[in-house]
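lol forgot to send this yesterday, sorry. struct tokens for the thing we talked abt
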């Protein structure tokens, strides 16, 4: 049976995903098969149409969080390169439907690469989408990537002082304070593709815009992938500017605490 016909709204979101994947590759934030992207598309589909499509498609067992039953998720594939999303999105990603018991899924679109399977971070992404549906229902997209300067900051002693790390990155220019208003969470190291990593990331999103995974990468969630990209892009610019000043041998003057406080009216 052929793939389900995608609603126009979903097609628009896929175009954004392709564009952001290109940005990540150009920035050298998605080496080889690094990084992954997902989006909760449940609200864009007619459930009856989806159930008709799942009847004759291959089903795969998977132990999802129980609250995700019935979700429809876009997600990138394991071993797939994000750069492939630019012009081969149907091979490097899929849209899957989680069954009513949250015990498995059926791919209803994409996954056309031989041996395709969803990213090994599927448990993390599905858990974050469940968290968002409860606490931040407007946030449908999750982007995980490897921003170079932010990762470097996770190796620095400032990583152990979250408030100070954010202050020093915010102070580099007004835009960082305004467009990443909740700042960065210094998320302690956890092994990839584990429930533990999902738990610490969800905890991060209770207070911050970005979860900076120690010595690994960064993850952001937002209403769409473009806005998630913006969080990561702007935050990394602050980190890059800070490191450039250090590399040039001087401590940046930065915005004062009073100036940072003044900017809160725009956040």
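and heres what i got for the seq, position by position
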């Amino acid at each position: 049976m052929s793939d389900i016909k995608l609603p126009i709204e979903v097609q628009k979101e896929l175009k954004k995903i392709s564009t952001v994947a290109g940005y990540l590759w150009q920035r050298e934030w998605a080496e080889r098969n690094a990084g992954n992207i997902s989006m909760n598309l449940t609200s864009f589909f007619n459930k009856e149409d989806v159930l008709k499509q799942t009847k004759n498609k291959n089903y795969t067992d998977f132990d999802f969080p129980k609250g995700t039953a019935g979700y429809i998720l876009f997600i990138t594939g394991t071993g797939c390169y994000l750069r492939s999303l630019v012009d081969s999105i149907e091979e490097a990603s899929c849209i899957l439907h989680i069954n009513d018991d949250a015990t498995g899924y059926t791919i209803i679109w994409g996954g056309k690469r031989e041996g395709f399977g969803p990213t090994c971070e599927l448990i993390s992404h599905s858990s974050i989408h469940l968290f968002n549906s409860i606490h931040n229902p407007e946030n449908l997209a999750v982007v995980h990537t490897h921003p170079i300067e932010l990762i470097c900051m996770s190796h620095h002693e400032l990583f152990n002082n979250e408030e100070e790390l954010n202050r020093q990155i915010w102070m580099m220019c007004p835009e960082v304070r305004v467009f990443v208003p909740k700042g960065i969470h210094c998320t302690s190291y956890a092994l990839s593709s584990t429930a533990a990593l999902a738990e610490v990331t969800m905890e991060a999103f209770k207070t911050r815009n970005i979860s900076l995974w120690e010595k690994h990468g960064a993850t952001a969630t937002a209403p769409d992938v473009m806005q998630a990209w913006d969080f990561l892009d702007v935050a990394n610019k602050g980190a890059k500017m800070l490191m450039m000043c250090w590399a040039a041998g001087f401590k940046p003057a930065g915005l004062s605490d009073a100036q940072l406080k003044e900017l809160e009216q725009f956040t």
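The chain has ten helices and nine strands. anyway ping me if u want another try
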